[in-house]
Amino acid sequence: MSAHSITAATSRAKWVAGTLVILYAVITMIPLAWILMTGFKSPSDAISYPPKVVFEPTLEGYVNLFTTRTRQTEEFLAANPPENWADEIVRQYDMVIVGPSKFGERFLNSVIIGFGSTFLSIFLGTLAAYAFSRFRIPLADDLLFFILSTRMMPPIAVAIPIFLMYRELGLSDTHLGMILLYTAVNISLAVWLLKGFIDEIPREYEEAALIDGYTRFQAFYKVVLPQAATGIASTAIFCLIFAWNEYAFAVLLTSATAQTAPPFIPTIIGIGGLDWPAVAAGATIFLLPVMIFTILLRKHLLRGITFGAVRK
Amino acid sequence: MAEVTLKNVSKSFKSTKAVIDMDLNIPDGAFVVLLGPTGAGKTTTLRLIAGLEQPDTGEIRIGGDRVNDLTPAQRDVAMVFQQYSLYPHMTVRENLAFPLKSPILKTSPDEIERKVKAVAEVLHIPHKLDNKATELSGGEMQRVSIGRALVRDPAIYLMDEPLSSLDAKLRADLRVELKRIQAELAATLLYVTHDQIEAMTMATHVGVLDEGRLVQFGTPREVYENPRTAYVAARLGQPRINLLPAGLFGGGHPPNAVQIGLRPEHIETGTGQPADIVRIERLGDQTRLHLKFAGHDVVTLTDPHTSLRPGETVAIAPKAPLYFDADGQSIT
């Protein structure tokens, strides 16, 4: 046996490795589990010390997240019986639901801006990456370096120029403005990642399609794109995660119209005290789209991040 | 089907001259094989005709029309690549139908179905039609990619070493099959290879390439029997031609001859000067004698049931050999 030979793991080694993996998974899951649990606690359970692991679950946090409420007199409450289960929950504080909160709107903004900028980044990134990969472009290396150089400082370093620029252009607090901004940040990542993926696709496929009677664009669309699906999926996840979670620019550039969920969720604090269950409920719902998106593309993601390591 | 002509075609990549001043005429219905080692410009020639490369100078005509400025799709050529040519995300059926569905051909579904079936039959893959292209063996993949060319009726079929990745048995079968198909369709076919057996067995015409130049073009027999240069002579024939100093067997050679070229049929055994037997290779149908003659290695054939043994000597003499001058040009 040489020093480099691969031997089967002993059962003890497997046991140790398995335990470590599970332990690591548990540790990373604790904060998430805590957020999930807090969302279903009552405000008093949420702040009780020592922290409660076993508690009586309630939807109070979710009701508070999605509604605005006002305190009412006893006569009013007696004259108007609760209309539904949600109403009933808020009655215990002598309140009535007067309308929806802004959360739904903010969440929708996040969806529009997050997925919009992801789509735009991938659309432009794929075309640019294809061009860089396949055509002789003058100064291609310099252009690629220039594109990468936009990542060489933290995006927030240019916050002030962007703030002023957006104010002049009327892009402040608009969906379009935020989509463009997140696309500008993500596009360098998209171009570089996708170029790597497209470089790996043999040119013969397109050349065969060109000879088979298709135009360059049809060959790209029918042959290259399906081959690049893996790369596109994993790049899309990275782009979405950035755009979805971005906080600093969202705070700076959005307010009444295009505000996304990240700057909104903390503002729930302060409406009649620290409403931790509502904040946790917001965070839980906010996590879902990225989680679902990632799970849907999981198969591609795994293949995507190991892509290029194995040469056929 | 159509005639294809290259006139003074040259192509360089950066500092490498891939094809130099190529004049080539592929007659209608001919099976032309371009032969040469790696880097001789065979594949570039194919790609120039297909329109995947643009010539620096010169003119390419298909069926009499100048095609220099046409896209590959407009040139109406079909090409089989050496590898990587099946679309991996499609089934075999979709792969075969892909050229027929192109905006240029726009074949009707019934017609597609019929043609795909017919080609699958010819290539013995009808049971594989609904497999994913990636689920095929190497031999099946290459048959499908040949099939993808055969479903069409193009001006010319271009094939870039289509059999090189296959095992010996399959290669021999497909060689026969290809030749049969070509004869049946009366197709014009340009075939690139470095395998002289493929060239000799299939070609109606052989073109030998050396560093981007077409050094000889003719029927396989012509090229084999009257090679224009020592380089061409060395490309055809097995065992390879023995190239020795012209005076090795004494006088009698043309005054400007530098090399004498001896194929096995140019060496008479049992008469002449003695050579030492170094090794005997018995291949079954033929037996090769590896000889040492005046310090030079000589390989020739002998009777398959020879009783000669290594260490013995055998007399050899040249018989109507080939002679080449200082530039390697044949002297006739």
From TrEMBL, chain A:
One of its GO terms (cellular component) is plasma membrane. It is found in: Cell membrane. InterPro entries: BP-dep_ABC_trans_perm, MetI-like, MetI-like_sf. The keyword Lyase does not apply. It is a multi-pass membrane protein. The chain crosses the membrane at residues 15-36, 107-131, 143-166, 178-198, 219-244, 276-297. Keywords: Cell membrane, Membrane, Transmembrane, Transmembrane helix, Transport. One of its GO terms (biological process) is transmembrane transport. Residues 107-297 form the ABC transmembrane type-1 domain. Pfam families: BPD_transp_1. The keyword Cell membrane applies. It comes from the Bacteria. Gene3D superfamilies: MetI-like. PANTHER family: ABC TRANSPORTER PERMEASE PROTEIN, MALTOSE TRANSPORT SYSTEM PERMEASE-RELATED. Belongs to the binding-protein-dependent transport system permease family. This is ABC transporter permease subunit. It comes from Kangsaoukella pontilimi.
From TrEMBL, chain B:
GO terms for molecular function: ABC-type transporter activity; ATP binding; ATP hydrolysis activity. Gene3D superfamilies: 2.40.50.100, Nucleic acid-binding proteins, P-loop containing nucleotide triphosphate hydrolases. GO terms for cellular component: ATP-binding cassette (ABC) transporter complex, substrate-binding subunit-containing. One of its GO terms (biological process) is carbohydrate transport. PROSITE patterns: ABC_TRANSPORTER_1 (PS00211), ABC_TRANSPORTER_2 (PS50893). Residues 4-236 form the ABC transporter domain. Keywords: ATP-binding, Nucleotide-binding, Transport. InterPro entries: AAA+_ATPase, ABC_transporter-like_ATP-bd, ABC_transporter-like_CS, ABC_transpr_MalK-like, ABC_transpr_MalK/UgpC-like, Mo/tungstate-bd_C_term_dom, NA-bd_OB-fold, P-loop_NTPase. Belongs to the ABC transporter superfamily. This is ATP-binding cassette domain-containing protein. It comes from Kangsaoukella pontilimi. The lineage of its organism: Bacteria, Pseudomonadati, Pseudomonadota, Alphaproteobacteria, Rhodobacterales.
